[in-house]
Amino acid sequence: MAPIPKPPAEPHDNPDTYVGLDADRAERLARDRGWSTVRSLPPGAIITMEYREGRLNFEVKDGQVARAWKG
User: pTM score, two decimals?
Assistant: First the structure.
């Protein structure tokens, strides 16, 4: 039986540091810091709420990150 894959460790990074940044710059920075998935969403987007280790979510308004959270 194959071993169960383990996702990469989540970076020790505070999502609040991305708020106010240009969305493209924030995404590049997040990937450089080790986030495996970066998801940009418009305000009020309907999303699934499952927690994904290594994922950083951005709510983007007018090209800037208005809110950021893990999972």
Answer: 0.84
Q: Which helix (H) or strand (E) holds 55?
A: strand 55-61
Cα-based distances in Å from 2 to 6, 7, 24, 31 = 12, 15, 38, 29
Q: Which helix (H) or strand (E) holds 41?
A: strand 37-41
Of the candidates 27, 4, 6, 5, which has an alpha carbon nearest to the alpha carbon of residue 15?
A: 27
- Sequence letter at residue 64: Q
pLDDT tens, position by position, 8-54: 678 999 999 999 999 999 999 999 999 999 999 999 999 988 888 89
